[in-house]
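Dear Dr. H.,

I hope your travels went smoothly. While you were away I took the liberty of generating a structure for the chain from your last submission, since the lab meeting agenda had it listed for discussion. I wanted you to have the full record in hand beforehand rather than looking at slides cold. The sequence, exactly as received, is reproduced here:
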Amino acid sequence: MRRYTYTCCCIVLIFVLCFCKPSSIPVELPSILGLDKVIHLLMYLGTCGVMWTEYLLSHRSINVRRTALFAVIAPILMSIAIEVMQGTLTDFRGCDVGDVYANAVGVVLALLIPYGWWLCNRTKSTPADNSSSQ
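The corresponding predicted structure, in token form, is as follows:
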């Protein structure tokens, strides 16, 4: 767990935000349709982005099975568990499948954004590479 300090902090923050009463949050959010889904997406995009960063900094190679479990399946299962707990353990929060979908989109984007960046940079050649081939 020492390698994933920031990831653990993000996960704790998600749990705190998901189980505190909305009235205890001092920030007044504007009432924009779907804003809560955007917030859910950003929470999981950020958390999984931090997770990917810590993973890549602490491993030389990527174990695809373990990475899929650790960086995709586990956050989505955590999201489902939180929603079920909100619906059953609190009287001030409800279980919302839309939140799970938004969280899953955030998880997938956290995977696709660095992968897309890697694909773009992998195919680009540097000026030094072009001059040596002439």
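Two observations you may find useful: The radius of gyration is 19 Å. The mean pLDDT is 83.

With kind regards,
E. W.
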